[in-house]
Amino acid sequence: MAKVRVTLVKSGIGHIEVQKRTLRALGLRRLNQSVTHNDSAPIRGMIEKVKHLVRVEADSGDTE
Fold first, then answer.
1. Under 8 Å CB-to-CB from 3, ≥6 apart: which residues?
2. pTM over 0.85
3. In angstroms, rounded to a whole number, what is the distance separating the alpha carbons of residues 50 and 47?
4. In sequence order, what are the beta bridge partners of 57?
5. Structural domain total, the chain
6. Residue 24's Cα: distance from chain center in Å?
7. Is 5 among the domain residues?
8. Which residues, at least 6 apart from 61, have a Cβ–Cβ distance to it below 8 Å?
9. Which domain holds residue 19?
10. What's 19's domain CATH number?
11. How is residue 15 annotated by DSSP?
12. What is the strand order of the sheet 34-38 is part of?
């Protein structure tokens, strides 16, 4: 399954509560923190809600 890497590049401070909760649900807590998720419709929807706060990259999944 394809993966996406989501990186928090702008703080959620000053944004509406729904966007802050979406960042938390994605697993993002600190600036420049990256998390990897399976590329699915729910994850894409969450990314769309906070696209002005995050950077999204395709992740090859190679950890070695």
1. 36, 37, 38, 39, 58, 59, 60, 61
2. yes
3. 5
4. 5
5. 1
6. 9
7. no
8. 3, 36
9. 13-52
10. 3.30.1390.20
11. S
12. 34-38, 3-8, 54-59
pLDDT (tens digit, 9 = 90+) per residue, 10-31?
999 999 999 999 999 999 999 9
In a domain, residue 60? The reply is no
Q: Give the pair of three-digit tokens for residue 58.
A: 């395709």
Residue spans of beta strands (DSSP E) within 1-64: 3-8, 34-38, 54-59
17 inside domain: yes
Cβ atoms of 62 and 40 closer than 8 Å: no
List pLDDT tens digits, range 31-55: 999 999 999 999 999 999 999 999 9
Residue 4 belongs to a domain: no
Please state at what angle helix 41-49 crosses helix 17-25, rounded to 10 degrees: 140
What lies within 8 Å, CB to CB, of 59 at 6+ separation is: 3, 4, 5, 36
